[in-house]
From TrEMBL:
PANTHER family: CARBOHYDRATE TRANSPORT ATP-BINDING PROTEIN MG119-RELATED, D-ALLOSE IMPORT ATP-BINDING PROTEIN ALSA-RELATED. Residues 17-252, 264-506 form the ABC transporter domain. It comes from Edaphobacter modestus. SUPFAM superfamilies: P-loop containing nucleoside triphosphate hydrolases. This is Rhamnose transport system ATP-binding protein. SMART domains: AAA.
Length: 516
């Protein structure tokens, strides 16, 4: 028996979950070829792997959303032969996903109650619903109002409600699939504090993330999946970031942030005193040149995404901006696209891909002219275009005609990016472009961004990952309170300076102040 098999065959009283040789195929795609994994009480066990390695499929099998083709699954000592979401929940399994799944027209308290109360509870005790919700949210270190409608919450706030739901159900086995993807630094710290607290209470946490710094900060053990198989399980303290990357991709990676110096050309976009009362934006001023990558840093809700939405015409501003020396007032996304503006949004479920449509249709959507002849879409042209992006962006898919929903999260992100590359933008706004993307693909997306800059595209890069912002950008505009509070050049920017500006530390107003 191999060391790996031996370690998985040991089942102690502290073992919460044990999966052995799990396999799963989808119409010819071998998603899991033999996954073994175990989780003990009071540990954070990270599950990592490239996009498409099988992490979500494994999660869905343990949470009862999918049945495995073969293999053995034991949850808290029970051999699970026919799993369902209800059964998994009754055994103490809960999961939090990267994309919150709240009912938008219900309040925070109602969303939590819907999840925790049985449908047989007809008499609604509003007072206890609200106090229960408030108590859970306070445990998470937030004073979010339980009476707020879910539709009014930011992505980070929605994620916090998801976590409150899981915690409220007293889960002892908690899957967290990219839980920090939509959170800012402060929320991540809050979450980690809570994860440690839960671990101390004996909860076992399966932590899935592409952010290796996070894995190293929070995990006790790490299991690496590659192409649907378990490659290794290690003590977190015994491996470094480079080891993890090599174990995940099966090769070594030279550089994660490959920013090359690109000559900066004339001004592409000049924004002066931009306000958008509907989004709370006030007096935002900045400029970005062709060939330049301008970073937008700041906490979630600080105004970064709101500026992007305004520039793309999703929520029009009252005033004009100057695009390639021409004053324009952008009132719709269609107009923005005609003017050469591409926008990869942060929330790809809402504004990103159409899940039932083919990869090629999703890619051609914003520039149908390129694949049409005399007003009619030529499917073969569309598929050729899809195939070339599948090749260039290393999208893991069997072909351009498969539905977007069959792709793993990271590969969907690449399809969303391809859509905007296909419009040949002059100004590209990328909101968290590498969110949920594995390290290898991340390096590829960074390379694509640099190539865009080399072709003279002006790029605005919004990211909550400071190493990404510092590694990729020529200048960094820092947001706080829905305006820009300062910009830093590549040379002067440090993580500490950006954080100080973002949090409003009085001694940290370095860099050129934009609000003069
Ligand atoms: N419903 C489905 N139909 C067809 N193929 C699927 C389906 N669900 C998953 N797959 C395939 O199974 C493989 C594993 O996908 P999975 O989503 O588990 O990967 P992952 O490790 O979670 O990736 P990511 O990090 O991108 O989220 C991928 O090749 C994916 O395309």
């Amino acid at each position: 028996m191999s060391d790996l098999a031996a370690s998985y065959s040991l089942m102690t009283t502290r073992t919460l979950l044990r999966a052995a040789s799990i396999t799963k195929s989808f119409a010819g795609v071998h998603a899991l070829k033999g996954v073994s994994f175990d989780l003990v009480e009071g540990e954070v066990h990270a599950l990592i792997g490239e996009n498409g390695a099988g992490k979500s499929t494994f999660t869905r099998i343990v949470t009862g959303a999918l049945s495995p083709d073969s293999g053995e699954l034991r949850i808290r000592g029970h051999l699970v032969t026919r799993n369902t979401p209800e059964h998994a929940r009754s055994l103490g399994v809960a999961a939090i996903y990267q994309q919150p799944l709240l009912f938008p027209h219900l309040t925070v308290a109602e969303n939590i109650a819907m999840f925790l109360e049985s449908s047989a509870t007809w008499r609604v005790n509003w007072k206890s619903r609200y106090s229960q919700a408030r108590e859970l949210l306070l445990r998470l270190g937030t004073n979010l109002d339980p009476r707020r409608l879910a539709s009014s919450l930011s992505m980070a706030e929605q994620q916090i409600v998801e976590i409150a739901k899981a915690i409220g159900s007293n889960a002892t086995i908690l899957f967290m699939d990219e839980p920090t993807a939509l959170l800012g630094e402060r929320e991540v710290e809050n979450l980690f504090r809570l994860v440690r607290q839960l671990r101390g209470e004996g909860v076992g946490i399966v932590y899935i993330s592409h952010r290796l710094e996070e894995i190293q900060a929070i995990a006790d053990r790490i299991t690496v999946l590659r192409d649907g198989s378990t490659i290794t399980c290690r003590e977190a303290a015994s491996v470094d970031r480079r080891d993890l990357i090599e174990l995940m991709v099966g090769r070594s990676l030279a550089s994660i942030f490959p920013k090359r110096d690109v000559p900066v050309r004339e001004t592409a976009l000049k924004v002066e005193g931009l306000s958008n009362p509907a989004l709370g934006l006030q007096n935002v001023s900045f400029a970005v040149k062709r060939g330049e990558i301008l970073g937008f840093a700041g906490l979630v809700g600080s105004g970064r995404t709101e500026v992007a939405r305004t520039l793309f015409g999703l929520s029009p501003a009252a005033s004009t901006i100057e695009l390639f020396e021409t004053p324009v007032r952008i009132t719709s996304p269609a107009q923005a696209i005609r003017l050469g503006i591409g926008y990869l949004p942060e929330d790809r479920r809402q504004h990103g891909l159409i899940q039932e449509m083919a990869i090629s249709e999703n890619i051609s959507m914003a520039n149908l002219r390129e694949v049409s002849h005399r007003g009619l879409i030529e499917r073969s042209k569309e598929e050729d275009q899809g195939q070339s992006y599948i090749r260039d962006l290393h999208i893991k898919a069997s072909g351009p005609s498969v539905a977007a929903r069959t792709l793993s999260g990271g590969n969907q992100q690449k399809v969303a990016l391809a859509r905007w590359l296909a419009i040949h933008p002059r100004l590209m706004i990328l909101d968290e472009p590498t969110q949920g993307v594995d390290v290898g693909s991340k390096a590829e997306i960074h390379e694509l961004i640099v190539q865009m800059a080399e072709r003279g595209v002006a790029v605005i890069l919004i990211s909550s990952e400071l190493p990404e912002i510092l590694g990729m950008c020529d200048r960094i505009a820092v947001f706080r309170g829905r305006t820009i509070v300062g910009t830093l050049t590549r040379g002067e920017a440090t993580q500490a300076k950006i954080m100080a500006l973002a949090f409003g530390h009085p001694n940290a107003l370095c860099g050129e102040a934009l609000q003069q």
